[in-house]
Write a structure and sequence with these properties.
The complex is a heterodimer of chains A (279) and B (255).
Chain A lengths: L7 H11 L1 H23 L3 H17 L9 H21 L5 H21 L3 H12 L7 H20 L1 H16 L4 H23 L1 H18 L3 H26 L3 H23 L1
Chain B lengths: L2 E12 L2 E12 L3 E5 L6 H9 L6 E5 L9 E4 L13 H6 L3 H4 L7 H13 L15 H14 L4 E5 L7 H17 L3 E6 L2 H5 L4 E6 L2 E6 H4 L2 H8 L3 E6 L2 E6 L7
Parallel strand pairs in B: 3-7, 3-8, 5-6, 6-7
Antiparallel strand pairs in B: 1-2, 1-4, 8-9, 10-11
Helix pairs in contact in B: 4-5, 5-6
The chains are: A mainly alpha (279), B alpha/beta (255).
Chain lengths: 279, 255
């Protein structure tokens, strides 16, 4: 991408014509993370989201070990879902504060990943690093379409159960007295979150996923005063920011995932300024 | 009066920890029943058992066939609610209809009508479009009462409804609860650590504290002698007209 700087129209043309799969995949994943992120923020489990992205990367890294020659997506899904479903239960009975346990898992996941990289052939290390950095532009349709389909199914489930997940998030105790099994609903939520995070991390990298779990939802919360609008706006920001991120990645010769997160962060900054001015 | 629910030698707790032991009492249809005791005494644990979210470690909780389909409308402590998401008052009250609606289905006209009626009963029809998180403590409590009413309850169960409120809001909430009892003929079960709140509204009372459990008519339970023995400190019960005033500690004439 170095050399003559392209004009915006050329970049848009190239993105649409040469990288439609990357644009489509990152927008869908951004939208899904945006929607999921509203619940992540509302449940105050942002650090849990960060831990799951790192655990998901660990799952990917594990599949590069010769002894564990399984598809990357499977490895990431199995490890992430295991942690997504077991961690909330473990945290309930823990003698140390929840964020301490999460901190341990977070740093251990990163450490083990680094150790795995040390024992991986150099060619594969480059592939892993590409995965971690989130080279959205070079994803293949064989990876994007199944991922988008799976994430789409998870989103349909979340949308269909909008009122139930909202109720459990707002007031789990009363919901329980009405016969909702809050533990089961929590398991369902963390299972969906784990699945979406694992699949998305494989596609666009950990920085993108965690960034889009937090930033669009936070922006939407600043700009909207109803839950429906927060969800809608978070999805819109999640869907549009990756496209703009890819645009700036081309324009300024930057890596795509961090560029997308930077665009989302810039939108958040503008929203925060607007919010301050409005008050 | 018909019993709605009966505790028979019930022990309750979490895991291996027993919180209350050998509790027996019955809740009757149409009564105003108070459950009082200091913080941490086990009131909420008993409440959870009444609401069916906690199983007894020992004993049994019996619901007669005539009351098996009774609906319990629960009003939680408002501090337990996490209002990060900006739900409107109307949306919060609508949550009371979710169970009747079932999974996936969206609210229909009748559900919105029920919300309107509940808001009217709670005296907050004008707040429907306001955000729950922007309301005062007293207003939030009314919203939670309206949500419980939207369930169409036979029994209204309130957990510390006046906790942390100023005198005016506290009086207003207690008046609303008394009205719902007298005009809507709702059975009321009110949990409070404030004896005064319960003393002037409930007909029967249970006091729970450190393994003790006493139940009976308010006049029998709320005597200076009984309360002094229960709380291990001097307690005076005074009648001022129709009202009961409970004074803890030594009372001195001003010099």
């Amino acid at each position: 991408m170095r050399g003559r700087r392209m004009n915006p129209a050329e970049i848009f043309d190239i993105l649409i014509s040469e990288f439609p799969v990357a644009v489509f995949g990152s927008s869908v994943v951004g939208a899904a993370c945006g929607y999921l992120g509203v619940y992540i923020l509302a449940r105050r489990v942002v650090f849990f989201g960060a831990v799951l992205t790192q655990v998901s990367v660990l799952g990917l890294a594990l599949t590069f070990l010769p002894a564990l020659a399984i598809p990357h997506t499977v490895g990431s899904l199995v490890v992430t879902l295991t942690f997504a479903l077991l961690l909330p239960r473990a945290l309930r009975g823990a003698r140390v504060p929840a964020d301490t346990v999460l901190g341990v898992v977070f740093v251990a996941a990163i450490a083990v990943r680094i150790l795995i990289l040390q024992h991986t052939p150099k060619v594969e290390v480059a592939e892993i690093e590409n995965l971690l950095r989130g080279d959205i532009l070079f994803v293949t349709s064989e990876l994007v379409y199944p991922t988008v389909a799976s994430v789409g199914v998870a989103m349909v489930v979340l949308l269909s159960l909008f009122k139930e997940f909202g109720y459990i998030t707002f007031d789990a105790e009363t919901a329980r007295t009405q016969g909702y099994r809050a533990g089961l609903w929590d398991t369902a939520f963390y299972g969906i979150a784990g699945g979406v995070i694992a699949l998305s991390t494989h596609l666009v990298g950990d920085i993108f996923v965690f960034g889009f779990l937090v930033i669009p939802a936070a922006t939407a919360m600043l700009l909207s005063r109803t839950v429906s609008w927060i969800l809608l706006l978070s999805v819109i920001i999640g869907a549009l920011a990756p496209f703009l991120g890819l645009f700036f990645a081309f324009l300024l010769d930057l890596p795509a995932s961090p560029s997308s997160v930077a665009v989302a962060a810039l939108v958040l900054l503008i929203a925060w300024a607007a919010h301050r001015l409005r008050r | 009066m018909n019993p709605i629910l009966e505790f028979r030698s019930v022990s309750l707790g979490y895991g291996r920890t027993v919180v209350v032991q050998d509790v027996s009492f019955a809740l009757h249809q149409g009564e105003f029943f108070g459950l009082v005791g200091p913080n941490g005494a086990g009131k909420t644990t008993i409440l959870r058992a009444i609401l069916g979210t906690l199983r007894p470690l020992q004993g049994e909780i019996v619901r007669p066939p005539s009351a098996s389909r009774f609906c319990f409308g629960y009003v939680p402590q408002r501090d337990t609610i996490d209002d990060v998401l900006p739900y409107t008052v109307g949306e919060v009250v609508l949550m009371g209809r979710y169970r009747k609606l079932g999974l996936v289905r969206r609210p229909a006209r009748e559900d919105h009508d029920a919300v309107g009626r509940s808001l009217d009963h709670a005296g907050i029809a004008d707040l429907e479009r306001k955000l729950f998180r922007d309301l005062s403590g007293g207003q939030k409590q009314r919203v939670l009462i309206a949500r419980a009413l939207a369930m169409g309850p036979d029994v209204l169960v309130l957990d510390e409804p006046t906790n942390g409120m100023d005198l005016s809001s506290r009086t207003s909430i207690l008046t609303l609860i008394a009205q719902l009892h007298s005009t809507e003929r709702l059975t009321i079960l009110m949990v409070s650590h404030l004896l005064d709140d319960v003393a002037n509204h409930a007909a029967r009372l249970a006091v729970v504290d450190r393994g003790l459990f006493q139940v009976g008519p308010v006049q029998e339970i709320l005597t200076g002698e009984n309360l002094s023995s229960l709380y291990s400190m001097p307690v005076t019960v005074e009648r001022m007209g129709t009202r009961t005033v409970i004074i803890a500690g030594q009372t001195h004439e001003p010099s």
